[in-house]
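Input/output pair, single chain:
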Amino acid sequence: MPGATRAALAAEEPVVVEAVGESVGSDLESAVEVIQRAKLEAERAAVESAVGVFIRSHTLVSNGQLADDMVFARVRGRIEKVEVLKQERDAADPNRYRVKIKALVRPIYPKGDEGITIKAALSRDRLPEGDLVELHYQVSSDSYVYLFVVGADNSVTQLLPNSSLRDNFTHANQLVTFPPPETGIRLKAMLLPEFKATGAVERIKIIATRQEEPLLSSGFQQGFKVYDAKSTGLVSDLLRRLMQLDPADWGEYTIDYKIVPR
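Output:
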């Protein structure tokens, strides 16, 4: 994927960040032990700050990049060098210590086989306008599956879960068809007016998580939830949530297809 290529390049670019950690000890601990804990907390904060820098360096300026740049949500950080800038004892609480550090942090991306593996295909990848299409997918672990369509205009439509089909749990290695035939939901290939003459490429993004994610499951009133190209809240919220998950606990997959004039 293009996003994976950019991620590999980004992995060569460490950043320097400053961070502060603090720890509260007890009368049974030495100052050295409490200071060490504060330093470890500062290192944790430095990695978290660096990951934010890595993500912002690949800012998702439109929802269309949901199809490419989700790989950046899998980045983690590794401290390669750390310098203690300051360590102090709190004047009001003699058991509390603070440590300020400067750290060189390198982005690390998970291996390709880490996380939930998704296999998926469309019934066809070239669709005359008006034709119906089905998606078939499998996940390697019991998962909650979230489906999105990224339109040619960079709008994003959340297909699953939706107001009619809220249950998105899928068993490992179960072959699933969306939309399920018994629901009466149909997916029809439709071109936006500006693409009526030329056709357009769209994408389906599949995200699978081991635990149900309320952020992606709520807010439906009727039909599918649609975000236009200027509404980047979906992307930023989704990215922020996935960053909080262990890379082994989720996976993603993208399918391109083309809609052509009939």
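Residues 1-11, 59-63, 218-222 have pLDDT under 50 and may be disordered. Helices lie at 2-10, 31-56, 214-217, 233-243.
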